[in-house]
Amino acid sequence: MILFDGDCPMCNMYTQAFIRSGMLGENGRAAYQTTMDNICPVIDKQRAVNEIALVDLKNGEVTYGIPSLFKVIGNACPVFKPLFGFKPFAWLMSKLYAFISYNRRVIIPAPTIGNAYAYQPTFKVQYRIAYLLFTWFCTGFILTAYAHLLTGVVPIGNSLREYFICGGQIIFQGLIICAYARKDFWTYLGNMMTISFAGSLLLLLPIILHHWFILPAISFPLYFMGVAGLMLLEHIRRTKLLALGWTLTITWVLYRVALLALILVA
Predict the structure, then answer these.
(1) Domain segments of the chain: what residues?
(2) Helix, strand, or coil here: 4?
(3) What are phi and psi of 77, to 5 degrees?
């Protein structure tokens, strides 16, 4: 049985996929918030919260993190077992798993506010910084490519402009959150950069289509404004989940409007 984070929509989705694909039985998963205290007396509870735990119900053996996933997938698809036993691959996957796991609450936030369960995911600043750098680079890279589709509406600028804009927003919003809710600094920045990253991924669609079809020039700024609107709605939703009020949404919008004005008059 896999013990997953019941407050994490992403964890719920992929463990449910294990059930539907037959990799786990119908009762092969349970939320650790409701089950962990009873299913295995020797389980490391904090580690199970940080790294998904797989419990052998016959002998009580517990594995955590990427070895748990390797066991589930390897049992269903034995062809992958040699790859899973290759130490460099296992090490790389363990780092990727940790990168996602320790940032899961900012990638897809929990739908409810509060820390009702006694154990919560450990915060590791190195993984949050890595996440901010990753999303900053990817967002800047995609926006730089999309800027070429806005020729005639917005000046292209130099090749680093979008990186500076995205990085500047991290610094600007970081100063704002520090001013009145310092304890939520890393959580808010993680959520904010998830929004930026998701918005940039949506911009990939017209970039790809542009290579295959001739699209009206007006469609690119209109699509961009539509994506910006979705990002605004998501920012409002996430700050409500975090109980941070409207200040950060207002400053988030003001920063972008001010930068756009500067670009247009430059």
Answers:
(1) 2-107, 125-265
(2) strand
(3) -130, 80
Write out the two tokens for 221. Answer: 């700024």
> What is the 3-state secondary structure of 27-93?
CCEEEHHHHHHHHCCCCCHHHHHHCCEEECCCCCCEEECHHHHHHHHHHHCHHHHHHHCCHHHHHHH
Q: Partners of 3 in the beta sheet?
A: 30, 53
The alpha carbon dihedral of 242, 244, 248, 253 has a sign of positive
Give the containing element (helix H, strand E) for 173: helix 161-180
pLDDT at 236: 97
Question: Which is nearest to 35 in space by CA: 119, 121, 123, 101?
Answer: 119
Question: In the chain, at which residue ranges do the beta strands (DSSP E only) sit?
Answer: 2-4, 29-31, 53-55, 62-64
On whether the CB atoms of residues 165 and 259 are closer than 8 A, the answer is: yes
Tokens of 167: 């990085």
pLDDT, tens only, 37-62: 777 777 888 998 999 999 988 888 89
Q: Do 5 and 104 contact (CB within 8 A), yes or no? A: yes
Task: Identify the three-state secondary structure at position 207.
Answer: helix
Residues of the chain with pLDDT under 50: none
What is the reported pLDDT for 111? 65
Task: Tell me the two tokens of residue 226.
Answer: 């539509």
Side-chain-side CA neighbours of residue 44 (13 Å): 13
Contact indicator for 162, 140 with CB cutoff of 8 Å = yes
Helix (H, G, I), strand (E, B) or coil at 26: coil
Q: Which of 62, 55, 81, 57 is nearest to 70 (CA)?
A: 81
Question: Residue 114: what pLDDT?
Answer: 54
pLDDT at 83: 92
